[in-house]
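Write out the 3D structure for:
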Amino acid sequence: MPDTTAPPPPHLPIRTPLAVAVSVLATILGLAVLTWGVLYVTKGRFLRPSFESVAGTLTDRQVRVDGDFQLYFDPFDLKFVAERISVSNPGWASRPNLFAADSVHTRIRPLSLVFGRYHARFLDLRNAAIDLEWNEDRRNTWTFGERKGDPVELPIIDRAVLAGTTLRYRDPQLRLLADLKFQTVRSDGNRIADAVRFAGNGAVRDTPFTVTGALLSPNDTAGGGRNQLRLAARAAGNDITVAGTLPSLADIENVPLRTTARGANLATLLGIIGVVLPDTRDYRASANLVKSGDVYTFTGLQGRFGNSDLAGKFAADASGDRLLMTADLATRALDIVDAAPFIGYNPDTVAAKGAVAAAAETGAGPARVLPDATFPVESMQVFDAKVKWTIRDVRSRSVPISSVDLTLDLDRGRLELSPFSFAMARGNVASDLVFDTRQRPTAASYDIRLAPTPLGTLLAGWGVEQSGTSGMVKGRIRLEGRGDTIHETLASSAGRIAFVLPKGTFWTRNVQLSELDLGTFAQKMFEGKLKEPVRINCGLIGFTVRRGIAAADPILIDTSKSVMLGRGGFSFRNETLDLAFRADSKKFSLFAGQSPVGVNGTFAAPGVNVISPELLGRAGAGLGLAAVASPLAGVLAFVDIGDAKAADCGPVLTGARAAAQRTAGGKPRDDVGRGTTATSEDGSRSKGERKEQRKKFLGIF
């Protein structure tokens, strides 16, 4: 009988998620292997039209390959070969092509195309020309599309062979143009091979430069070492070298590079990038340079300028709309001549001929010492700076200065030195100086404060002995003026200058000479008491400044034996001095000049006039009395009866003006504050004005 049993159902494959995944993966791998095989066999030559079309669409540029083309995996690196390839520039560029080469041969890590910077294991360029250019709208030739330009980011390259390759870089904002040529040279030895050497020239801010260098790539026998960079450049008389080890041939980001520079003037080096610095004498310096984006940091700075040393760190930040320079500097010993440029002098001229000759170079008139060097207003307004500088000692023949602490802040043309402090003769000077070039002409303010300082130490450089002198001095200078030179700001200034002498002692010899009390001086000289101290009760040397003319307001020094008074003043305009000092004795003196001692001349060449017209007149009167009466009567013309009124030291010690001064009895003083320094617009005096001034002196004294 027939078999009626139903046949078993056909076997169906298992439909599980794992099976599906394995099937899909196998398919993908199969297609990948098939694609790899097709590309490997054909070298991907058939992809040339697609490559030109896709690359042109993505970049919005014309991409052409007029020779052989290869694009395939060999075995895992992506190999790319193109002959007579070109990539066009945007229409605004000055050259037609961003890139053109007779031959390109490279091997790229495929994943780097997806996850980061292109990483080329090998690059061979033959007769390539690369044009990197910015325009005024901050677009560039290597950033595709309509967005703003990105900074240059070169691919990572492990090894390169270059022949006849050129690179041109142009940035109108930085005013930079560079043309470089690269050439690979194999060394004869077995340690270094395939050295990529380069040379070129260009200009930065209209300053021409030349550069040569090499990228030294180790060969196989070197066992995977890194690339050594050697670079030498020359610009504006400065020689710069850079050396370091790069992780790849084109990677200098965050890599420390040892940099050295030397030249005749450091200002010319920083001037290349638009940073204004006062002129210096010859310099040499070295530091470690690290580039991080648009920030260039120099650490471990060690160097010298002139006869002074310099250490610390500084940075140039070009990432914003304005260049920002920051620095933290230290100097062990600063030669005073090397500090001359900071007030406008040429240090070489100061060293060779003195301050007067240096001032003349700036346009100052004859016998002037205040420089007329114009502030670099435009340059000061295009970059910012924040600098801290400490100086341990300043080498100076006259004034002992040490412990300088300077903080500088330049913000859009406003230069502030605050605080600017230093120790001088065991005292301290603190100052705040501002030069605001935003205002036209420059608005300047000077605020200089002298803490109590020993007179003997302060004046030791001018021949004053310290022995027997315990007097102190403290003071303040506050002036405001307008102008684009230091001389102009002071010549137009207004304010007050006041130096206070608290209680102390001074050499008898010095005091008696200034009093012109010849009788007491001669007596003490024969008694051997020239070094006997004279007590200073209090003193004030004050000036009121208007339109650059400083008038005594007042000069009043009260000692144990006399009251010294001063009249006149000085001019910042033509730097002339016209002062007279007279001391009235508190005690009887048989032979006293009782006539003003004049201080005249200029800042550069001050003079002292001991034999004044008043003294000559008194001598004439004495001779007349001696002739008509007796020799003893002639002496009467020089007798000082000692009726000087002692000063109330309260107003003196507070630096009060002449109108507030009082005698020891509390009455207003009638011997200060009634004279002025009369000057014309150019700071000079007429004959009549000089005569009137002499009358005022005679009237007081």
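Residues 33-224 form one domain.
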